[in-house]
Design a protein that fits this description.
The protein is of the alpha/beta class and 388 residues long. The protein has a domain at 8-69 and 104-173 and 266-344 and 364-385: 3-Layer(bba) Sandwich (FAD/NAD(P)-binding domain). Helix content is 37%, strand content 27%. It contains twelve helices and 19 strands. The strands form four sheets. The protein has a seven-stranded mixed sheet. It has a six-stranded mixed sheet with strand order 8-2-1-12-19-18, covered by helices on one side. The two termini are 31 Å apart. Bound molecules: flavin-adenine dinucleotide (FAD). Keywords: Monooxygenase, Oxidoreductase. This is FAD-dependent oxidoreductase. It comes from Patulibacter brassicae. Belongs to the 3-hydroxybenzoate 6-hydroxylase family.
Length: 388
């Protein structure tokens, strides 16, 4: 038997899980986070848009996160030969978004969301094997056989989730046709965050604190093509003739700060909740990285769900309301990220046509798209829809 005195169990202490647990705690609810890693992960850096910062402000964690990152104006998009494709003007973007985006190391982000030691009870080295609904609540089973009763379970174990199959069938992940590299360069760059579109490739950078800069490169590569033997040499060669500072960033990146991963995609879950068991973040809606919104939407999810679960005695009703309100909004973000990624990595004629089409689009369209998803107001609209 489970009951309303049981804690809410959060599976996974990534970005989504940390946000959910911090929101539950801020609203006075009892939560336990179970994380399979023995120690917090590192995992490169991330751009955090104002929609995520607004969500974190709701639970009092925004300023801690700002203190751990570095704000940057948004520059725009250039071609690999240096010509500008889209340049909306940094001041105009800041006004539309409500503040600047932040560059932050992932580990620092998760730590800043979680708060001082012990603020959120996290058990590291706790791998969840199964989640089941029970009369009046739910239960999780750990790899060592331990079972924990829960008032509700928040599934936040990422795109490779093994625990969501009780909510809905899990669609298979498919290779998207391109590979991504993420690096942290020991080089200070004081320019606005910029993206570059090349032949079936994309690159970009964003300033971090401590004279470091986060950068990325994605490149079309057939699934059966061999991976480069030396990632550092490969990215230095690809970026050698690109506009500054891309080549310098690749050259100033230690091997330990360069990560390669094939970009994979799977359809979002058909349903995100069943009774008091509910999925958030990449577990519910993995997305391609081109809008830099996967982590931001994971934070919105965690904060909104945490506040609802803390307020609503009927956890199943809260989970269902959350899922109904969020699915439509996030589906649009997932779809746009997929369309952009596909066009950016298409073979040359399609890819070149996509560049040309965007070069003609007025920057007002780019700003409107950012405002609809990445602004402080975008989060506030989502919160209002849920009565928060
Ligand atoms: C190249 C790239 C660049 C990106 N750039 C950005 C960006 O700039 N901005 C942005 O907002 N997003 C970005 N994203 C997306 C972002 O990284 C993800 O959307 C985000 O990490 C999702 O967070 P999550 O907490 O849902 O999942 P994860 O970060 O994957 O966390 C899941 C956690 O669950 C734990 N776990 C897994 N299984 C179990 C289990 N069985 N039991 C217990 N614990 C478990 C894992 O160890 C992990 O800690 C990018 C993604 C990629 C691939």
């Amino acid at each position: 038997m489970t009951g309303s005195r049981d804690p809410i169990v959060v599976v996974g202490a990534g970005i989504a899980g940390a946000a959910a647990a911090a929101a539950l705690r801020a609203a006075g609810a009892d939560a336990v986070v179970l994380e399979r890693r023995r120690e917090p992960g590192s995992g490169s850096a991330i751009s955090l848009w104002p929609n995520a910062l607004a969500a974190l402000d709701r639970i009092g964690r925004g300023d801690a996160v700002r203190a751990a990152g570095r704000p940057s104006p948004t520059g725009g998009t250039r071609r690999e030969d240096g010509r500008w494709l889209m340049r909306p003007g940094a001041a105009r973007v800041d006004r539309a978004l409500g503040e600047q985006a932040l560059g932050i190391r992932r580990a620092d982000l998760v730590a800043a969301i979680a708060g001082p030691d012990g603020a959120v009870a996290t058990r590291h080295g706790a791998t969840v094997e199964a989640v089941a609904r029970r009369a009046g609540g739910a239960a999780v089973r750990l790899a060592d056989g331990e079972e924990l009763a829960a008032r509700a379970v928040v599934i936040a174990d990422g795109s490779g989730s093994t625990t969501i199959s009780g909510i809905a069938p899990v669609p298979a992940a498919r290779y998207a046709g391109y590979v991504g590299w993420r690096g942290i360069a020991r080089l200070r760059v004081d320019e606005p965050a910029t993206q570059f579109w090349g032949p079936s490739m994309e690159a970009g950078f964003l300033a971090l604190p401590d004279a470091e800069t986060y950068w990325f490169l994605t490149e079309r590569l057939p699934e059966d093509a061999p991976a480069p033997a030396d990632d550092g040499a490969h990215v230095r060669r690809v970026l050698a003739d690109w506009p500054a500072p891309m080549a310098a960033l690749a050259a100033a990146t230690p091997a330990a700060e360069l990560l390669r991963h094939p970009v994979r995609d799977r359809r979002s879950l058909r349903r995100w909740s069943r009774g008091p068991v509910v999925a958030i973040g990449d577990a519910a809606h993995p997305m391609r990285p081109h809008l830099a919104q996967g982590g931001c939407q994971a934070i919105e999810d965690g904060v909104l769900l945490g506040l609802l679960l803390a307020r609503e005695p009927d956890a199943a009703a809260a989970a269902a309301r959350f899922a109904a309100a969020r699915r439509r909004h996030v589906a649009g973000v997932v779809r746009n990220a997929r369309l952009i990624g596909t066009a950016l990595h298409a073979p040359r004629p399609v890819n070149a046509a996509f560049h040309a089409g965007n070069a003609l689009a007025p920057s007002v369209a780019m700003v409107a798209q950012l405002r609809a998803v990445a602004s402080r107001r975008a989060f506030e609209r989502q919160a209002r829809r849920l009565g928060l």
